[in-house]
Every structure is written in C-alpha cells, then in structure tokens.
Design brief:
- The protein has 14 helices and 4 strands.
- By secondary structure, the chain is an alpha/beta fold.
- Helix 1 packs across helix 5 (about 70-90) and helix 3 packs across helix 4.
- The protein is globular, with a radius of gyration of 20 Å.
C-alpha cells in the first residue's frame, strides 16, 4: 500500500511566499497563509483562507503574492525533481515504515490505522541549509495530515533517519486516536505543571511531555534501534533544550521501552510516571 504523498505546486508556492521578508513584514503576527491551509488544490486553499479572514482580505493577499510568481517559477523548476526523489525515497521504505507503525499502534492501543488515508505534503524550504528534514502534523477530528519540510539542497540519504522522523509524527496522530491516553498525558502534565514548566522553555506542558514520550521510542529511542539500527545518542547529564531532554529520556527509558514493545504492552500511567520520575531526578 503506497503512502499518500502529495507534491503540491501551490502549497510550495505559499510556503515560498511565507519565507519572503516583505510578506512577513506585512503579516508579522497573524499569517493568513498558515500551513494548516494545505489542501489538494488551489481553489480549496483559497476557500480556507477566505473562511479564516474574509473575501476582501483574500483578494488583497492574492494581489500581494502575484509579483512573487516569477521568482517562484525558477525555484520550482529547480526543486520539483528534488521533491520527486524524496517521494521515491519514502515510498521505497514504506514497508519498513508500516512495520514500525504497527508497533506504535500497539503502544497507543489503536487497532485500526490506515496510513494511506493520511496525506503527507512534501515542501521545499528555500531558506534552510539544515542537514535534516523537519516534519510536523496537523490534527482535527475530521482531518489529519503530515508536512515534511525539506531543505532545498538536501538529497535523500542512504540511511533511514528521515523515515523515523515520519514515524515520530504518525505517533502523535496515533495518540490522538486514543482519547484515554491523550487525556492521561494532559492530566499528568497538569499535575506536575510546575516541574515541567521549569524545563519546557515556553512549550506547553502537555506538548512537552508528549514529545518526551514519543521520543522515548523514536527517533531517539529503542524503536529506532530495533528497525533502523540507529545508535542511541550520547546524552548530557543536565539537559537544557527540548532536543537534549528527548535524547536524555530516550536513553534512560531504553530498557523500559524495549520491554513494552517486545511484550506488546500499551503505554500507561506507569510508563508516563517513569518519565516524570526521571525528570524530577534530573531537573536543575
């Protein structure tokens, strides 16, 4: 079963526009071209923009971005083939991705999850020179999708780390399919709010705890080691940033994550409380 990978010229154009300094100056805090407007065609995207603003504002936006089409045309000619290479990379590794997702489904207590129903938008980032992709998810009860932002010069690698990044985002969607698990994360984050706020760096407590939970399995944890032969990252004894905390928790939860996966156990309060216990012991 193929992944539902979408390379939308217009969605890439809107992303390109958002990286333009003049556009950002015009909409510094309320960006009407927010990436949640991804749809399968241009008409649907404009309809979403009109719903979030109004027809007059949408018309002004169209007029504002029209001069950028020529510049984008050159960019698109350069990167469209590049995005196709990434699409082929993910499709070629879809069977391994599905196998790993079967493990995450069991961890989340979700029996039926068809990844072919989840659109995956590939977006070229003209402003990034990073060595890794960036991915994120959008979820509502009626619609979910993933977005993969790919630095414009980054070619598909001969390793599988980008696949593990994709699974990390699917993991977040699976958590939202289990209302009890989602609620448990929120409850525990609220219970230890003062502790988590201290280390979260402005990230909402529930989101921070969920990030640590997912990362304890993938891409920093045991699930990555099991399927992608990823080395468990070295850790700092006193983590500060989100990435450092993700690596720290993944390393300390390795054996427990292994037990849950190999024993086909679903994530529960015991697992989450162990993460919080590690935070309490390590937070400065």
């Amino acid at each position: 079963m193929n992944l539902s990978i979408i390379i939308s010229r217009f969605s890439n154009f809107l992303f390109f526009v958002q990286k333009n300094g003049n556009f950002l100056a015009a909409y510094p805090s309320n960006n009407p071209l927010d990436l949640s407007f991804y749809e399968k065609n241009e008409r649907a995207i404009w309809r979403q923009i009109e719903l979030s603003t109004d027809k007059h504002t949408a018309k002004k936006i169209k007029e504002a971005i029209t001069p950028l089409k020529g510049e984008f045309f050159s960019h698109w000619n350069a990167i469209s083939g590049h995005l196709l290479l990434w699409k082929r990379y993910f499709q070629n590794n879809r069977h391994l991705l599905q196998q790993a997702l079967s493990e995450t489904s069991a961890l989340c207590g979700v029996k039926h999850f068809a990844i072919s129903n989840i659109p995956i938008y590939l977006i070229s980032d003209p402003a990034s020179d990073d060595n890794e992709i960036n991915a994120w998810f959008s979820w509502t009860p009626k619609q979910s999708f993933l977005v993969v932002e790919i630095p414009h010069n980054l070619t598909p690698p001969n390793h599988l780390f980008p696949v593990s990044v994709l699974i990390h985002e699917f993991f977040h969607l699976l958590i939202r399919r289990n209302k009890i698990l989602f609620s448990t994360i929120a409850t525990l984050a609220q219970k230890d709010s003062s502790l988590i706020t201290k280390i979260a760096g402005g990230i909402p407590n529930r989101i921070f705890l969920e990030e640590l939970l997912v990362s304890s399995f993938i891409p920093e944890g045991y699930l990555s080691k099991q399927y992608f032969d990823t080395k468990i990252p070295s850790i700092k004894p006193r983590p500060k940033t989100l990435l450092q905390w993700r690596k720290f928790i993944a390393s300390n939860m390795y054996q427990m994550a292994r037990t849950y996966i190999n024993s086909h156990l679903a994530i529960d309060k015991r697992y989450l409380n162990t993460i919080i216990k590690i935070i309490k012991q390590s937070a400065v």
